[in-house]
């Protein structure tokens, strides 16, 4: 009996998780892509969660932080129990915030391999989702901060402090940025690098500030909307270069922002 219980425990493991996306499977089940601190990103089968009587359904909402018990399976692991750690309910009640949450989820899903653990990225995601639920930092600034911290954590940190050509410290001026090379060039070197495109002084200042400010909770500056949009365009090009494909959720974010702005006028 003790050997049986030990074997059963070896097949079942606990983990914290955030649901990134989901897909209906059969009449009552769902396949959910989750992101965990210990096991990285992977898919689990949640049986019966589409039924109105399911006890797990409310704990496996998109972007919710939950604690799961997971059983190892042949093709897919099986979510057997779930309890909510933090529901982040505001993300499902506000379309602008929800759009940014979808964007963050796409970044996790696209930039990380399955079963590749990144505790630091999990912490960044939890902090970003929590900040999105508040109104202290604009959602688009939260997204830019997460993008920079995520790129840094997985080894694609943009070089923003020194010139990629001559290594001199970057100062305000006619600097340029190369997406292909992943960094900034001083005015002298920029003229000799065909992939470098001019980057405005305020945009580079914002990117450098967000990169060195490790916690989103410490971001407390007023940023002109035009500067944030310019930073978004640069980082989108950088991320899509790394991914080698377009970001789908970024277009959704843009459409939602335009619609919200239209309602506000």
Can you walk through the features of this model?
This protein has a five-stranded mixed beta barrel with strand order 1-2-3-5-4. It has a three-stranded antiparallel beta sheet with strand order 7-6-8. 41% of the residues lie in helices and 21% in strands. By secondary structure, it is α+β, with helices and mostly antiparallel strands. The radius of gyration is 21 Å and the shape is elongated. Helix 2 runs antiparallel to helix 3. It starts with a helix and ends with a helix. The longest helix is centred in the last third of the chain and has 19 residues, at 225-243. It has helices at residues 2-11, 95-111, 119-133, 139-153, 187-190, 201-212, 225-243, 248-264, and strands spanning 12-25, 29-36, 40-46, 65-71, 77-86, 176-178, 183-185, 196-198. The protein has two domains: 2-87, OB fold (Dihydrolipoamide Acetyltransferase, E2P); 91-264, Recombination protein O, C-terminal domain (de novo design (two linked rop proteins)).
List the helices and strands and how they pair.
Layout: H1 2-11, E1 12-25, E2 29-36, E3 40-46, E4 65-71, E5 77-86, H2 95-111, H3 119-133, H4 139-153, E6 176-178, E7 183-185, H5 187-190, E8 196-198, H6 201-212, H7 225-243, H8 248-264
Parallel strand pairs: 3-5
Antiparallel strand pairs: 1-2, 1-4, 2-3, 4-5, 6-7, 6-8
Helix pairs in contact: 2-3, 2-4, 2-8, 3-4, 4-7, 6-7
């Amino acid at each position: 009996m003790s050997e049986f219980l030990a074997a059963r425990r070896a097949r079942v493991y606990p983990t914290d998780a955030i649901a990134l996306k989901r897909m209906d499977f059969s009449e009552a089940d769902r396949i959910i892509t989750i992101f965990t601190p210990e096991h990285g990103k992977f898919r689990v089968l949640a049986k019966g969660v589409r039924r109105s009587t399911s006890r797990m359904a409310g704990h496996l909402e998109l972007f919710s932080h939950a604690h799961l018990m997971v059983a190892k399976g042949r093709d897919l692991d099986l979510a057997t129990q779930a309890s909510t750690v933090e529901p982040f309910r505001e993300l499902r009640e506000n379309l602008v915030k929800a759009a940014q949450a979808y964007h963050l989820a796409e970044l996790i899903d696209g930039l990380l391999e399955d079963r590749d653990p990144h505790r630091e990225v999990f912490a960044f995601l939890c902090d970003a989702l929590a900040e999105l639920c508040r109104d202290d930092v604009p959602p688009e600034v939260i997204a830019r901060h997460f993008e920079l911290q995520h790129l840094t954590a997985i080894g694609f940190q943009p070089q923003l402090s020194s010139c990629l050509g001559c290594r001199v410290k970057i100062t305000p001026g006619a600097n340029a940025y190369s997406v292909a090379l992943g960094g900034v060039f001083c005015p002298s070197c920029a003229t000799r690098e065909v992939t470098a495109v001019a980057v405005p002084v305020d945009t580079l200042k914002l990117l450098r500030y967000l990169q060195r400010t490790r916690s989103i909770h410490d971001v407390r500056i007023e940023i002109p909307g035009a500067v944030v949009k310019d930073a978004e365009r640069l980082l989108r090009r950088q991320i899509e270069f790394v991914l080698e494909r377009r970001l789908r959720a970024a277009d959704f974010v843009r459409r939602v922002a335009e619609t919200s702005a239209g309602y506000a006028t």
